[in-house]
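Researcher: Good morning. I'm working through a list of sequences from a screen, and I'd like to move beyond sequence-only analysis. For each chain I'm collecting a predicted structure so we can compare shapes side by side. This is the next one on the list. No need for commentary yet; just the structure.
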Amino acid sequence: MPVAISVAATVYSACALAFAALIALTVARGRTSKTGTAILGCCLVSVIWAGATAGGVAVPVLALLDSIRLCAWLVFVVALVTMRAEDGAGLDRAYFYGTLAFCLVAIGNDAWTLAIDGGATRLYMSQLLIRIGFGVAGLLTIENFWRNTAAQQRWHVWPLCVAVGGLFAYELFLFSDAFITRGRVDPGLALGRPIVAAFMVPLLALAMARNREWRVDIHVSRQVVLHTATLGASGCFLLAVAVVGMLLRRFGGDWGLVLQLAMLFGSIVVLAIVLASGSVRRRLNYLISRNFFTHRFDYRVEWLKFIELVSEPKEGEELSVRIIRALAEFVDSPAGVLWSLSRGIGYLPAAAWRLPTPDQMKMALDDPFILGFRDGSWTQERGSEAVDEMWSFASPRAGLAVPLSHRSEIVGFVVLDRAR
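Model: Good morning. Structure tokens for this chain:
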């Protein structure tokens, strides 16, 4: 036992000295940026945590210091992610304040444990779950930060991503193992924490040397936000399933293991079905775009997608059909019809996508429906009964009409079915 204590004290002391050396080196260099100062603050908290652990402080106090350390690193990387353009500002605020709320819960839980059981020798189950939450949140944030960093800027930030990502990855591994297998942290695996923290120091020093001003170009990707939200929801779902499975095994008697395995497998199947559902993805994407972004669409991405669809046809697909398909995919419409101007006759249906082409139909140049486009500057959406009368030529599911104009002349229009 004395040898084990000596090894642990040595490892944690070395970790504290490594962070202290980084702080001293940075301070000796003189003036630093706000981001560099934030890193120094996180390093200082790490020094206190490692030093207290090496000194043999009581477990509840160490748990509180550990939560403060993890909160500092998590808030730091979340602040980096939320330093973005105005588009997505609502999501940034929700992300940042949600992180602060989670950190307050973590620190409050450890403070409460310290108050009611100052002599505890192991972590409570709630503390294990919160540390698993730190691991999941930290990894998702680092993944978001990396993917949203411009390719030419990733050389500057990869040391930071590896350092902080490694920290949270080991937290997730260590406390997931403790929660699932024993209900307590393995002392041998716990010695990896100061080792992982010590390896952060040279990476952080490299990141600070490469980013003297920390002006990292970060762009919000709607797909990354969607994937992050999906991963976060999936992680919460699986964590809840793990908790229920553990309770079933503990209180289910002879059937406990069978019930746990059946629930775990069933939940994985349900999750796979939900994630594979196009309808669920569309609803989630719509929810994110409507509530968290200034603009409904990422127009740069949609324009590039439109050009690609029009210029790279499928085998045997005409240009008119490709135009319908490109407009339909922009608004998530399942089908549409293209009407084209025929001089001296009016507008005739020229092509259809996933719908039969209307036969023996035409529309006059002065039809009220055509005038509703206002020389091509307006689209038309199906709404009231009065407006529905002008849509008698279209399919019952038609809901949007998009003009195709050239020099203020309507040369055609596309009628699209309602979005899914």
